């Protein structure tokens, strides 16, 4: 036997049994974002490697060791996007959409990071990305966070906790960086290899370490909050007041830093106790410097990304996904003439009743086998197209979920007959 081709580790198939939860999440998200005035944008999965290096930062894990980078046939270095913000900003610049204009955008799609695969952490994973471009104030931050809170409510997800923090300005961060290097250098023997590597380049990243052995040292580190500039403190306090006013509960986590370098001022993360170690379901923050850093006109912006797989897992665990759709009508076919004419009859019905689901029996089978399939389909009603019936200009009509005999319906009044039969069964 020919050897089968293995899937790529950390890259999942979403099978029909799971797709209902995905579609539900997507539909609720799409509707909510639209109601807040966000418009969808779709950007390429591939970008120039340079874009991510410049946007995300050379010293981050993502750029340092997780990117899927290759040289294409033209000799360009390209990378499968590890996140969406850089590509969206690139699109705003490439399409000359900035010029003092505001944009509220969202994007759904797969991201790629060469991480260690485990439950909730994959190498291809999906994100919903939401970005508000052009406003500096804390009001946008607050509304964006309120929007995410409302999404959990619409999805019926309980028990998500919000943490917020302020990273201040690049200047206040520089002062803090010096203090951190001083602190961690004093304890260099206790740093793990990753943290030692980060110490010279980006010591803030050490705070984001997921190594349990590092947590005690991290807990003793100086706090960024003590080094905030006045304007950032004000921004942060205003955000807190607006969230309070809107009834969005949060904890201030002074050690919350984000995995990507471009953030300033507001950062936030929604976490759950449910998915074990992979507990972040949605994270984001303000990135006022990024657009200029990528060659666009300086424009403030704030955004977040949520992890679809982690949210789907929560949805499924909470039983919050709608039941799978079943056909309204199963069409049983018997005889040579019936087989030849069945498709034409069902297509006419589909044209007349676009909201109903018709499952036409394909591939033949005797009556018994066809009724077994009809039962398994979950349809409440069967139509029977047989040669005898066709000769008399009628079809058989038989309820499947209740004890009831078979009746007949004229072919030229079929749609109305189906309506009537479904109505008496309380469906359709
Ligand atoms: P984590 O701390 O879990 O590594 P992150 O800080 O790298 O997350 P972001 O880059 O901000 O996360 O991405 C936003 C969201 O995308 C995360 O909150 C998480 O829900 C999801 N996410 C990130 N990386 C993965 C992954 N490898 N597999 C599945 N989901 C992920
Ligand atoms: Mg990460």
Please explain how this structure is put together.
This protein has about 425 residues and is of the alpha+beta class. The chain has 2 domains: about 20-170 and about 230-315, BirA Bifunctional Protein, domain 2; about 330-420, Anticodon-binding domain (Rossmann fold). It is built from 15 helices and 16 strands. The protein has helices spanning about 15-35, 50-55, 60-65, 85-95, 140-155, 170-185, 195-200, 215-220, 230-245, 290-295, 310-315, 335-350, 365-375, 385-390, 415-425; strands at about 40, 45-50, 70, 75-80, 105-110, 125-135, 160-165, 250, 265-270, 280-285, 300-305, 330-335, 360, 380-385, 395-400, 405-410. An 8-stranded mixed β-sheet has the order 1-5-6-11-10-9-7-8. A 5-stranded mixed β-sheet has the order 13-12-14-15-16, sandwiched between helices. Strands 2-4-3 form a 3-stranded antiparallel β-sheet. Strand 15 (about 395-400) and strand 16 (about 405-410) form a beta hairpin. It is elongated, with a radius of gyration of 28 Å. The model has no long low-confidence stretch (mean pLDDT about 95). Adenosine-5'-triphosphate binds near residues 83, 120, 283 and 306.
Write the layout of secondary structure elements.
Blueprint lengths: L15 H20 L3 E2 L5 E3 H8 L4 H6 L1 E4 L5 E4 L4 H10 L8 E10 L11 E10 L4 H18 L5 E6 L3 H17 L6 H9 L13 H5 L10 H17 L4 E2 L11 E8 L8 E7 L3 H4 L7 E7 H10 L11 E6 L1 H17 L5 E3 L6 H11 L3 E6 H6 L1 E6 L7 E4 L3 H11 L4
Parallel strand pairs: 1-5, 7-8, 12-13, 12-14
Antiparallel strand pairs: 2-4, 3-4, 5-6, 6-11, 7-9, 9-10, 10-11, 14-15, 15-16
Helix pairs in contact: 1-5, 5-9
Bound molecules: adenosine-5'-triphosphate and magnesium ion (MG).
